[in-house]
Specification:
Elements lengths: L1 E8 L5 H14 L3 E8 L5 H11 L3 E11 L2 H13 L4 E5 L7 H6 L2 E4 L7 H19 L7
Parallel strand pairs: 1-2, 1-4, 3-4, 3-5
Helix pairs in contact: 1-5, 3-5
């Protein structure tokens, strides 16, 4: 089973975000082992970046506004190619300060979900939902319409 990491800065505080994450992680468990690592905010962006890079495994996909935008189908294709390659990959969600240049340089892919800014806790849910959607698209499921 493929392993997918998600490294996030900070903890989920609101119960409704936690419940949504739990639901998508449960759904994803049919397809992949998803490991979420929460790290503390650093004293500065460089320290935070070093902590992120220590926690990340495999190929790094950094979520940042200047990244490449994919449709859901394109993301599904990318996820499929990573899974077919048998590589672990880790999505990175930074803090409200963004990501350090070191994390961006280390990224195999910089990915943007929108030009808009989302709360970091909500971004986790959006990422989990899109990963689930990717697996459903790749498996020909009815979820994606």
């Amino acid at each position: 089973m493929i392993k997918i990491g998600v490294v996030c800065v900070g903890k989920i505080k609101e119960e409704f975000y936690r419940a949504a994450m739990d639901e998508y992680l449960k759904r994803l468990s049919r397809f992949a082992k998803v490991e979420v690592k929460e790290i503390s905010e650093g004293k500065n962006l460089e320290e935070e970046g070093a902590n992120i890079l220590r926690a990340a495994k495999g190929k790094i996909i950094a979520l940042c506004i200047e990244g490449k935008k994919f449709s859901s189908e394109e993301l599904a294709g990318y996820v499929k190619s990573m899974c077919d390659g048998g590589e672990m990959f880790t999505f990175i969600i930074g803090s409200s300060h963004g990501l350090s240049e070191a994390v961006k340089r280390a990224a195999h892919l910089k990915l943007s979900f929108s030009d808009m800014t989302f709360p970091h806790q909500l971004m986790r849910v959006i990422l989990a939902e899109q990963l689930y959607r990717s697996f459903m698209i790749n498996g020909g499921g009815e979820y994606h319409k």
